[in-house]
Amino acid sequence: MTTRYTIPRHRRFLSTPRYVPTSQRTATTVISTIIGTCVSVHLLTQYAESRAKETGNITPVKRIHEHLVLSARNVREGRWWTLLTHTFTHFTLTHMAFNMLGLWTFGRPMVMLFGVRNFLALWVGAGITGGAASLMVESANNAADGKGILGGKREGETSYIGASGSVLGIGAAFAATFPLGSMYIFPIPVPMYNWIAFVGYATYSVYAQTNGLQGNIGHLGHLGGMAFGALYWLVRLRRPF
Known about the structure:
Blueprint: E1 2-4, H1 11-14, H2 24-55, H3 59-67, E2 70-71, H4 72-76, H5 82-85, H6 93-143, E3 159-160, H7 164-177, E4 182-184, E5 192-193, H8 194-210, H9 219-237
Helix pairs in contact: 2-3, 2-6, 6-7, 6-9, 7-8, 7-9, 8-9
């Protein structure tokens, strides 16, 4: 996936407090720090799983699932921080690589344009909103079978990991900022406008979720993240003209 964008230079736009010019070096540092954190957590999970296979000691793996992975059980038992820590957790290299590519693509220009605080608000807010949306719908689905989040049976609860919600939230704000920029999305061989790409993906996520095509993909987390990103752009980042 590649994108093309141009940082706006309109004088009136530059005069608004929503625009917080930030150096490319700072933007690279912020994004690299998040990527480094995700890589470190991934290496930790791989080490814990490797040691568990060698020694039979699954305690470290259990601790990772309790304190880094988002699930209804973890939230129910008071580990609310997993609403955020799951965004730094990936169990497969491919999952992490695609998310980090999206973060690098969308994140750096957003930091440069709107500043570190707005970027971090997007990252945290989109990640938490995506995770909360996943849990709420899971709870609603289970409630019909007497397995709601507040009581009843709890077999088969779903676990959620990955930065996708945060990345897509940032990407949605990016697409709203540069709607007529263009991007390629594999395997589609032609470029498309940023806004078309994200509206199209959101539509696909709704279709996949409602028709049971989600597989291991957390479409609800993606939709929640994109919704937060779009709303944050509308309320905090939108140009005042």
